[in-house]
## 1
Amino acid sequence: MSASEAPRVIPAAAVPLHRQLGVTDFELDEIRARLGRDPNDLELAMFSVMWSEHCSYKSSKVLLRTLPTAGPDVVAGPGENAGVVSIGDGLAVAFKLESHNHPSAVEPYQGAATGVGGILRDIFTMGARPIAVLDGLKFGDPAAPRTRHLVRGVVRGVGGYGNCVGVPTIGGELVFHPSYGGNPLVNVMAVGLLEERHLTRAVAPGPGNLAVLFGSATGRDGIGGASVLASATFGEDDPSKRPSVQVGDPFAEKLLIEASLELIQRGLVEGLQDLGAAGITCAVSETADRAGTGILVDLDAIPRREEGMAPFEVMISESQERMLAIVRPQRLDEVVEVCGRWGVPAAVIGRVTDDGLVTVVTGGVDDRGMPRPATEVLAAIPAAALTSDAIVYDRPAQHPTHRRLAPAPGAPESASDHLPVRGMDPGAVLRGLLGSPNLGSRAWVTTQYDATVGSDTVEASERAAGILRIKGTSKGLACATDAVAGVGAFDPYLGAALAVAECSRNVLVTGARPLGVTNCLNFGDPEKPEAFWQLSEAVRGVGDACRALGLPVTGGNVSLYNESPDGRIVPTAQIGVVGVLDDVERRVTPRFRQAGDIVVLLGEAVPGLAGSEYAALAGSAVEERLPSLDLAREAALQAMILAAARAGVLASAQDVGGGGLAVALAECAMWGGVGARLSLRVSAEPAVELFGESPSRIVVTVRPADLPRLAALAAEHGIPLEPLGEVGGDRLQIELVGGGAAGAAEERGANVADALDCALAALRHAWEQALPRALGDDEFTPPPGDG
């Protein structure tokens, strides 16, 4: 029987089958054009998942092609399971950032857990041992019961999977914003280490080679899970989505890691691919297309854990912890032996062919992949039609008709009386910011993660970048992930560019050299012109920032249709950066180190409070502007700070980000357990200087004898430098001086604005209690020395 004559495998209904599967009438015509005939039901199901937004990137591919991807250290870039960059001495680092937003909104624990499992498989599929996880989490109002349910489930899911599989979670980002109330974001980044000689590609070369499926058996969990959930909007608590969420087993994943890495290191596989979205269909079609071959799949040979599964269920199931290996027939016994020793079931499910087709048969091959006499063809599709020749859209983009510069969605309409810009009590503002959900301690989250398993973690948790040592060398890796959604809400281009700059800056302040960028672009429905405009502007921002900073984009993910009945999320470009430290023992930390060190501000503030945490707390005038980003100045600052770190000039360094300069100084003081006596020149408004989030600024400390060397480096790179004062005491004291400070409190008979003067103990108390209080957890006790 030919594929076109195969029996229907999905029950008919009043609504045409292709529409039930999310395939449009236009796309059905395109499928017919590629096949030269009507697809049968199994083929239509395979096309529906492979042409989904999640698998095909059909709306974003035209934009992603504009990103810079080349670089002298890039070993593997976009199109592979993960980006791989050389770090010298025959070693390389693999890293990638991905989303599991919609599954996590439906079932937060399993959605987050399987998000971790999936990104880890992307890493070890390349031949790299996973060594770290970071997460970028976005939720709505922390006081809302649904938000609290989601936060608790997602954090438990990330920690539960990562802790059990033995990979440390070393950092990340947690943000609350009203737009995420109906559609949370769960972005997970994984990092792995490999010898370059063991780099493995997801290809299926060599007709006659065997397709071996190993790992967990195939079930109905995850039928159309990520591929469907991430390709359409849905209502809150939609019960039709719940069966689609995958179920993870971290202990099975641990065995899969060890078996896969041994197979790679012994040279037993010709290609390797994990099974994630679209399951077996995706794995066989992508590996075949990349190699210019085909694959014949024997449906009967696929191990299942449920009876009565229809062919389409087997082919598109997203059951977790499964891998596809391409194996030479003469190496099969060794592959089966390795898998058996690790307790991982393995089965030959097909063979590589030379016809370029993904052919699904029943009773088609024996245990060596050879055809049996009686073969029933259920599907026959050109591999390219499912992958590289999948449909691509050039969507219309339209600038929003009405764009308000301020206030941010959900922020007060105007500055509140108790936190005025002029004549304010800066100490009260600082305590308010440190006590806010977005800037408070993350210990409530990080204490649920194992940050030290594997014994490679040097710095984790509250630091801007997590740092790992590379055993057997002096080197280290610095890893960070950031987004600037507050600004993206007003200007998606600027928000995305700022995210690249801030994330790379967070890696740089450790003394590491950034190697490359991975991204996860979280946006709304691309079929809506305004949403597609937001996406296109963000991609432009990422590209411009990466080109200015000399960073290649090595891969990533696009998550669209992030909308709910409450509306569209704010444009969110989540960025991940990995950098290399030549000597991990010479890393720079943000903590103030010792009394007498000089505190120095590199860079200068620019006007603009819109999109800042200060504006979210205190409100901002409707005419308030966004801070500007000078990419040339940012590149110069980054070059200067790297030179200073390599010269051994820096005692500490901290990026100025959320909450502005005052929050950065408070963090340095709290984490170091020592205060500072500082004087800050105010040229405009105190709120801008203290709490504005102008980019391209770094707070450093140096020994007094090293200040001239730092000043020389700053002058060489054209970076403004302002000594602020000295480290010492148990208080953070900032005197405001200059023209902007004069007359700020004239109504009260003063000729200068109030100084900021806070005990570190009071700052720490506000900071430590912020998140537990916001989430209604009165029983949480911060660990000693948190931060």
Note: The longest strand covers residues 129-139.
## 2
Amino acid sequence: MDEKTCHTLEFDKVLQLLAGYTAFPASTEKALALAPASHIDEAYRRQTLTSEARQLLITHPDLTIGGARDIRQAVELARHSGVLTPTDFLDIKSTLVAARNLSRTFEKNAFQYPGLNEIACRLPHPSGLVDAISHAISDHGEILDSASPKLSNIRSELGIARERLLGKLQRMVTDQKFTPFLQEALITQRDGRYVLPLRSEFKGRIKSIVHDQSSSGATLFIEPLGVVELNNQNRQLQLDERDEERRILAELSDQVRSHAEEISQTVDVLAELDLVLACARYAETINATEPVLHPLPPRKISAEKSHHPGSRIRLQQAWHPLLNPQTVVPIDVELDDQTYALVVTGPNTGGKTVTLKTIGLIALMAQAGLHIPAHSGSEISVFQDIFADIGDEQSIEQSLSTFSSHITNIIRILKKSDYRSLVILDELGAGTDPQEGAALARALLTNLLDHSVTTLVTTHHPELKAFAHVTPGVVNASVEFDLESLRPTYHLVIGIPGRSNALSIAERLGLPQDIIASARADLTPEDLHADDLLDEIHRQRDLSRKARIAADSARQEAEKLRAELIEKMDHIEDERQTILENARLEAEEKIQDLEDELREARCWLTRQRQPAETLKPVEEKIEELQIEVEKPVRRRKNILVKQTRPLQPGDKVRVRSLNVKAVVNAISDEDVEVQVGALRIRSRLDDLEFNAPLETISKPAAPTPAVKPVEVDVPGIELDLRGQRADDALDMLERHLDSAFIAGMPFIRIIHGKGTGRLRAVIREALEHHPQVKSYESGHDKEGGEGVTVAKLSS
């Protein structure tokens, strides 16, 4: 991609913002060096990775690359036989541990994030290096005694020698024969040897070796002759300890050198993953969306005269990512199957240049794998090259005027561009004689059209408005200007050329009427008629826009009232469910009382030696009532809740029965698989409340991914066994437990009813000895009480 164009369109500033979301220098470098892809497959791959990362951050918002560090310099030093410091080894260990943890995370979620997992699979695992570092160096950067047996022995001997040395010096310090001669009763060190502070006037009173003196000369630091041998022994052991520590560090450095390639690859892969996460976080910050990417079809020689290259640009409510999102005016741009050139006209400071920069920058972002600042559903082709000539290119050093600089750049663009290119030209034909400039602008635009180059231009030349109107493949556009406030509105209007507002503005500013009239008289009737037509078109468009704004306002008010009504109906439904649930619980209590009375009646008949068959119809009736009462209270669907579209993967929902937010993973005819944190569960459609969807859109056909998602059958959170025979119920329970355990579910609810209690006893006995069940308990009152068993699964 053309570097000059990337700088002109301020793509480098976007990369600087992106770099602010990276976690360590290696990924920061990758962010700043990110270049747009020229091939559809690579651009699509990058977009898919960013979408996967945004989806991942929904369920794992705190996911980072952990404790990874930029260890490239340390590895390079080891590669050249250098010895690393303990801090270097801790950074290497931290980076390798972070890589291992990330690899496990993506391995567990491989079926959901195949692209990210494919990158994580490239993370090497240097054998034994983390253990070797942990064995030798503590978390505080100290070399451990366990680093080697020799070091352990040296430190043990050093401790004994130091204790003996300090003990003898301490006795001298407290001895009344020496105390008067000492400046202070303390033991200090000089050049690695333990000494005593002697007052200078008592020099020679203690047989010793002088090692140093204070700056004032009042104190001499002496080593008594009686501890010289102990000091020698202590110092020698210190040197032995230092040498052994160096040997250990050198040995570990050799291990790092042997794994240098793997460690370097680890840093590179971690940087790549961190860059993808940074793209996702940046997209979330600016509320960007994934664009639909279109390939440019191969150029075919056809008998038709159409020069359309097959490019497509359809941006909805797009805005420049470097402008304040609170004040920027979004634009709609569309180049369809019949159009591949856009001519934008309008007043100065009206937003023409910003419009061109917005479109060009969005094209670069889309091809770099960044989600774009536009509404969902925006589409754009992937261009092999993008060229731009924008701004004042005057060069004093090269003695080039603004016009000459523009022409020099345009010549370069004409040589390099073809039907696979996007060319953006600002103020085409400006900076020279208006008549010659208009002719040159028309000739340049004709040349680009003949070579099937997708082109966006701005101009002040009225001749190009007429050219765009009559030339196939070209469409006019304009930026609006408010004559009342004499300010631009920055709204882009496709299909209508810009008006010439010079006379109107001069008149409103107070220029004498005779001068205005004289100027109008010099205009041709055709120009005046064209301006009148444009005025009428803009007036009618303003009326249409006001009507649309009024309609939108009315619709929003209706939606607000509808939302309030939905909330009230939901509240009523909650109350209805509470009342019915309380009635159901009361009925259960009464049925329980009936069962107790029936049991007493059966016992009385037994004592009276009377047949109990007379009670059988009553028992059957009670069982029917029990089955009816145990039916859960279903929530009625709110008829006012209308989804603007069917549920699709990526939508945010709320699971009413669990009162948690979730993200839709997959949809079947009967139920929906949703992701709740790290848990995947199946739920009924009527148990889901549709919230604002994620910014997901349909994607074009793409090459088959290298890693195919693994389909896992995720069972429902409830298993209804009412009415089943014991053997059949146990078989169903076993299958459900296996599926739930494999899916990683924390618990399931088993509905068996109360009845005689036999089915409940059989199920709980099976749960008691099941290897995948950690514990079980009765359901809460609202879950069904003793008619439900909640089984908690092992993790």
Note: Confidence is low (pLDDT under 50) at residues 393-400, 692-712.
## 3
Amino acid sequence: MRILAGIFLCSFTAISFEIALTRIFSISLWYHFAFMIVSIAMLGIGVSGTVLSLYPKLKNSKNLGIYALLLSLSVSLNYTIANFIPFDPVRLSWDKIQILYIGVYYIVLCIPFFFFGLIVSASFVEFSEKSGSIYGADLLGAGTGSIAVILLMSFLSPGQTVFAVASSAALGALIMGRKKAAAILIILNISILLLNPDFIRIRMSPYKGLQLALKYPGAKHIKTYYSGFSRVDVFESPMVRFAPGLSLKYLDPLPKQIGLSVDGSDINAITEGTAEFLRYLPSALAYEIKKPKDVLIVEPKGGLPVLVARQYGAENIYNVESNPLIVDVIKNDFKEFSGFIYNKNTWKGLARSWLKGRETTFDIIDISLMGAVPSGLFGISEDYRFTVEAFKEYFSHLKPDGILSVSLFILPPPRTEFRLLNTVLHTMEETGIKNTHNHIAAIRSWGSICMLFKNSAFSQEEINTIKDFSAKRNFDLIYYPGIKENETNIYIKTPSPHYYDAFKRIITKDSFRKDYIFNIKEVHDDSPFFHYYLKLKNLKEIYRLTGRKWQYFIEEGYLLPIVFIQVIILSLILLILPVAAKRRKRNFSVFSLTYFAFLGTGFMFIEVPLIQKMILPLENPSYAVATVLASVLISSGLGSLLSQRFSHLRSFYMVALLSIAVIPYGFLLSYFIEGISAHSMPVKTMFSFIAIMPAGLLMGIPFPLGMRILGQKNPSFIPWAWAVNGCFSVLAPILAVMLAMAVGFKWVFMLGALMYALAFVVLKKSISAPRLS
């Protein structure tokens, strides 16, 4: 029982540290480097299995307390070391030593997971007959940790959170008999947490927006705020001049603005009061066309779109912001400065979810994709705000003559605006709108685009307003029903009217979408990667077009295949070493490899799409991660414990049942999400947890079943099987995301079911295999 409690606490530490590191990487580097953490964690676990295979003396259960102490110590110490490694991805293009620093990151940060892997793997070897209990304690600890770490990061910085969760492993060591050393570690960790010295504070890349803004003369950092899923910094800087696409005809100074940054980037601003400059923004076009009564602002951030609506006399302004921390910061600490923008009719979450089930309709729905500093979005990040299904929701809540306004920065080479147009066109056609070319208008300034869409056709009076608004502010027309080429490319001269040509070709549905260098196909909820534009066949031409800068490909998601290749190479080394060193007998080596490889892949092929799909109803990636991990891991832990208690659950047919049980998730999950979206967050979280549990219970049975069989036939294979499962659990999440981008989440679920079906076939054959010595 003491060992199980120790495993629970160490698993709690390992998963909490892993999740905390994803937040730390998002802040210190960029969001896409957080994907490295999964491979780092499972690499450490895989190495532990390989080491135990090569050095059997390490399997002694008396060492478990020592491993727990080393886990606790390495979590806090190695985080501190990693924080001082001068890796910066921006420097890779001119400083080749940065490649070495990536390797150092891997080594330093995988060490805590190595010690955790030793604890669990050694326990399986020593107590294989209790595999269900061991695996259950491991999963229950991980499930609990996935919830607790989000709560901890709501009131502690990620750096402080690391020292808090390190104490959990020390407590596990104390329970397993290492009392004095564990007590010292607990006291040390808590003391550092409370003192919060400079060395545990996250070192942020000097090339991130916040750091650059603070280098300006007179810049001042005001305050840092934390939540479980983001960090918001408030600051003053001359760099913050937030008036996206402001007409060059406006010559007066802007009102005072205070900068906002999310995770050190995504710069936005809080603007003091209202001013005439708001009428000189491209995003004001919708308000010039239609005097609004009811307006919905989607993602108001610092509140500039709210001020535009106020400037034009909107009576009822509704704000829906996906980052709750921004709302809390402005509402609590900057309410007077901002003009009380969030003190009325403000909701937190995804606008499309908020709209679900409501009958309110709007004169204008205003969506902004802009911050104070133009920036792209990582290609493999899910974005449910701009799928066909999302735009259907927006259109269904427009009044008959209402306007959907979308504003975005011009970020060459053009691709976001073209995909957006294509997605909205597809939405219009699916909702039965005829002659879609009459329902679209677009203008551009020197730095931004404003696109308008309507359920009804634009009238001649509205077209005249668009032309007059643009001419008075020196904005260029891109498209309106009946536009002529000589009406475009007047004020912002380019060699050719490429925006006019592209919009016209997309709207008239010629071969532009097929021929264009980037993928601008419409996006659906089943593969919501709106910001992923690469076409593999055009990589060479895209490389030339982007100035021969490989960083663009990293931003677009090609870090994923690079990490995938790295992990394959490392996994092969880890898996081959024990076999080569000890010349294992073939038939049970094949079982250990194939069965546990299928389990690791199948588990992740179900868990990853569940997380990505549940972002939509739970409205935030961190909430989705916490809910899905908690549900899958806790229910799998319970399933493992039940299989230890009830012998009929240890039948190999349970693996086949799991394979069948997974299939409905691929087909029915979207309908489930549709059904719960209109409910409150606690209700959605509860229903999500319950819906995932049936599959989770079954997912906890196959692994301890395989470990039990290994323990009976040849226990020496257990560490190697642990390494196999760990390595394939690294490969599978990366592969799952790549597959989701190509074929959608539904087919990733189907492949997960196939993995468990193959595991069943292998297990059934192995049952009749003789004992190996």
Note: The first strand starts at residue 220 and ends at 226.
